[in-house]
UniProtKB/TrEMBL annotation:
Listed transmembrane segments: 21-39, 77-97, 118-143, 178-203
Family designation: Belongs to the connexin family.
Localization: Cell junction, Gap junction; Cell membrane
Protein name per UniProt: Gap junction protein
PANTHER family per UniProt: CONNEXIN (PTHR11984), GAP JUNCTION BETA-7 PROTEIN (PTHR11984:SF26)
Annotated source species: Nyctibius grandis (Great potoo)
GO MF entries: gap junction channel activity
Pfam families, per the entry: Connexin
Annotated PROSITE patterns: CONNEXINS_2
Keyword rRNA processing: no
UniProt xrefs under SMART domains: CNX, Connexin_CCC
Residues annotated as domain Connexin cysteine-rich: 134-201
Keywords: Cell junction, Cell membrane, Gap junction, Membrane, Transmembrane, Transmembrane helix
Length: 219
């Protein structure tokens, strides 16, 4: 599939983001999207063909592969990338709504349609919460589906139609585990960046509201 739409989305959101938000976009684009396209996709490309069991019982190998890999790592990673990026559309849509509203009324209604304040602030905060939530959900999902963040060299399978306990071997387990650790590390980094940006915005606008209230009381 083409990842151009995701690149365009991240580029479009970049101009509405804070400094921390721009770092998050750089991490997603450089350390996740590009790594996925250039390297990780090729490593898991033939994972089913390279999954070998020490028996040729018809159907046994397919059943064992499906049991130990219910969802492909690489497809789950792709879904994660899409899900954590799409909440940014909320910000883009809100800015577009502001711009259309100004055109409709034919007057300046905002200092800048892309400035994070008022309703756009709440939209931005919601997008951060959704991105953080998706990151955590997918990390838990990875952990539950594969019994931890590791890729074993050997898996033992005794599911029918296998006649007995069968040894199955995963190709390039070390290489796959390195990329899995990389995935987990970048996900955790993105969670930290999202929470930092969320805290920064809440603190910034809390101080701003407090100062406005103090000035108003003095007047």
């Amino acid at each position: 599939m083409s990842w151009g739409f995701l690149r365009d989305l991240l580029s479009g959101v970049n101009k509405y983001s804070t400094g921390i938000g721009r770092i998050w976009i750089a991490v997603v684009f450089i350390f996740r999207l590009l790594v996925y396209i250039v390297a990780a996709e090729n490593i898991w490309k033939y994972e089913h063909d390279e999954f070998e069991c020490n028996i040729k019982q018809p159907g046994c190998e397919n059943v064992c592969f499906d049991h130990f890999f219910p969802v492909s790592h690489i497809r789950l990673w792709a879904l994660q990338l899409i899900m954590v990026s799409t909440p940014s559309l909320l910000v883009v849509f809100h800015v577009a709504y502001r711009e259309n509203r100004e055109k409709h009324h034919n007057q300046k209604l905002y200092k800048s349609p892309g400035e994070i304040d008022g309703g756009l602030l709440y939209t931005y905060l919601i997008s951060l919460i959704l991105k953080t939530g998706f990151e955590i959900v997918f990390l838990v999902l990875f952990y539950k589906l594969y019994n931890g963040f590791k890729v074993p060299r050997l898996v033992k399978c005794d599911i029918r139609p296998c006649p007995n306990t069968v040894d199955c071997y995963i190709s390039k387990p070390t290489e796959k585990m390195i990329f899995l650790y990389f995935l987990v590390t970048t996900s955790c980094l993105c969670i930290v960046l999202n929470l930092s940006e969320l805290s920064y915005l809440i603190f910034k606008y809390s101080i701003k509201c407090y100062l406005k209230r103090v000035i108003k009381n003095r007047q």
